[in-house]
């Protein structure tokens, strides 16, 4: 029995030496890789405790903290800083408003003051007939033309005054239906308005949609038959309930004296008066400057009109010379008042034995044009003149200083001229001209002027370059050159 007891103890010791996972399990599976463990030890992986993230204070905790003395003082300090800053900005804004110079009220402008007027004395020479003129409205719109002076187009047999029919359109120009279509198309553009050059049948043509009339020899009508003149003014200038848009009454006189033109402008009551002030014979730049200054000082610039040509006088390039065409374009489009041009003045059209030469529509501008370009250089010159005209017209319609700004004469001599156009706090424009055959230097050193100005436009391509800076104390202009400079407002 003692031997059995000893064997039992030995068996128990052997079992204790065996690993707990060794051998086959109850299902007869093979031992797992962990069978190498000895003495029944088991490695257990204890997961780490999850890190507690801060999610902010609860409502109760915030209420407890917010009531502490430190946070109360901080809130009051921030509130005081906020309101002090707000009040400071308010006071600063009020001070700036009070110290800033008041803006000038914009003057009342009529539609004929907002852009150049364009005279077509012979419809056949310009576009063959009224229908052709309607097709050319797009070209005139590009030039920013605001008014079209057309005619006369009524039946007027030569040397047969008894056969004049003022209410009938000449077959050479077209017919009444074409005229109505032209008026309708022009009004759709919203930038072109038509008016006829007539001395009779005013009521009939005004009923056809005409926006005004231009009368030649206005001083004779006003002085010889004053009652008739009063009726004409009442018919044209008095508005009606059916027509809110104002009509314009333009007078034409051959007088060249600034005194006579000023007196006539006051006595006749016309809206605009075309005269020969700028094209008077033997007039140099000094006399021209004096005439401009006198008319500007005596009348509102909305009643001033400037022209160097016309239906009875001819074209700008012929009267002033082709070399000075661009100079005169810049002069007319920068003077205070309404510029008036003859058809073709934008391209330098010259009179060829007649005041009504045929209009040139170059193929580069009009692909289907019937006229051939005689010379490429001439065509390029016409296109360049037209681009300058268009740029000046656009600038005049966009800049307040040029449209209705004040006029200040800066310098004038027998062959040169410089003046300033300015309005309130808008950009200033300085126009300088040299009519001489040699270069000239203009000393522009007034206190109101800066030392330098920027070139806006010049009649000489690339000299000086656009947007370049020039010195005003010694502004140099080439022969027959004009330039338009600009500089900002400064208090």
From TrEMBL:
Keywords annotated in UniProt: Membrane, Transmembrane, Transmembrane helix
Stretches for region Disordered: 1-42
GO-annotated cellular components: apical plasma membrane; basolateral plasma membrane
InterPro entries: GH (IPR017853), Glyco_hydro_b (IPR013780), SLC3A2 (IPR042280), SLC3A2_N (IPR031984)
Gene Ontology MF terms in the entry: aromatic amino acid transmembrane transporter activity; L-alanine transmembrane transporter activity; L-leucine transmembrane transporter activity
Bilayer-spanning residue ranges: 76-98
Gene3D superfamilies in the record: Glycosidases, Golgi alpha-mannosidase II
Keyword Glycosyltransferase listed: no
Keyword Transmembrane helix: yes
UniProt domain Solute carrier family 3 member 2 N-terminal: residue ranges: 45-118
Example GO BP: L-leucine import across plasma membrane
UniProt-recorded name of the protein: Solute carrier family 3 member 2b
Organism: Myripristis murdjan (pinecone soldierfish)
Gene name per UniProt: SLC3A2
């Amino acid at each position: 029995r003692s031997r059995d007891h000893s064997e039992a103890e030995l068996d128990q010791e052997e079992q204790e030496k065996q690993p707990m996972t060794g051998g086959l399990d109850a299902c007869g599976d093979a031992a797992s890789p962990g069978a190498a463990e000895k003495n029944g030890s088991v490695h257990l992986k204890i997961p780490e405790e999850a890190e507690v993230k801060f999610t902010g204070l609860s409502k109760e905790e915030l209420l407890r903290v917010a009531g502490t003395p430190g946070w109360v003082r901080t809130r009051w300090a921030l509130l005081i800083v906020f309101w002090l800053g707000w009040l400071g900005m308010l006071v600063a804004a009020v001070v700036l408003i009070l110290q800033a110079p008041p803006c000038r009220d914009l003057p009342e402008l009529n539609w004929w003051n907002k852009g150049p007027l364009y005279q077509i004395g012979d419809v056949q020479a310009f576009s063959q007939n009224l229908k052709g003129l309607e097709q050319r409205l797009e070209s005139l719109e590009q030039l920013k033309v605001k008014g079209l002076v057309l005619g006369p187009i009524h039946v007027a047999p030569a040397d047969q005054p008894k056969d004049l029919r003022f209410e009938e359109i000449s077959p050479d120009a077209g017919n009444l239906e074409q005229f109505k279509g032209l008026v309708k198309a022009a009004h759709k553009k919203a930038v072109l308005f038509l008016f006829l050059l007539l001395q009779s049948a005013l009521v009939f043509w005004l009923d056809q949609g005409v926006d005004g009339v231009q009368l030649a020899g206005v001083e004779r009508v006003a002085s010889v038959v004053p009652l008739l003149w009063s009726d004409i003014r009442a018919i044209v200038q008095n508005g009606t309930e059916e027509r809110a848009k104002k009509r314009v009454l333009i007078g034409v006189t051959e007088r060249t004296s600034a005194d006579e033109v000023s007196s006539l402008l006051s006595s006749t009551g016309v809206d605009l008066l075309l005269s020969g002030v700028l094209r008077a014979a033997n007039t140099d730049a000094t006399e021209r400057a004096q005439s401009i200054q006198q008319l500007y000082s005596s009348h509102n610039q909305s009643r001033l009109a400037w022209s160097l040509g016309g239906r009875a006088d001819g074209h700008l390039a012929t009267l002033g010379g082709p070399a000075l065409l661009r100079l005169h374009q810049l002069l007319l489009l920068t003077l205070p008042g309404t510029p008036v041009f003859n058809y073709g003045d934008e391209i330098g059209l010259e009179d060829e034995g007649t005041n009504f030469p045929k209009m040139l529509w170059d193929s580069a501008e009009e692909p289907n044009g019937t006229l051939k370009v005689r010379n490429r250089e001439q065509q390029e010159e016409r296109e360049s003149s037209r681009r300058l005209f268009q740029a000046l017209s656009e600038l005049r319609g966009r800049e307040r200083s040029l449209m209705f700004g004040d006029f200040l004469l800066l310098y004038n001599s027998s062959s040169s001229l410089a003046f300033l156009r300015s309005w309130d706090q808008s950009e200033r424009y300085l126009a300088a001209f040299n009519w001489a055959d040699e270069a000239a230097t203009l000393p522009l050193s007034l206190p109101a002027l800066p030392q330098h100005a920027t070139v806006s436009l010049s009649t000489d391509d690339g000299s000086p370059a656009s947007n370049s800076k020039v010195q005003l104390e010694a502004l140099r202009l080439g022969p027959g050159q004009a330039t338009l400079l600009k500089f900002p407002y400064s208090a």
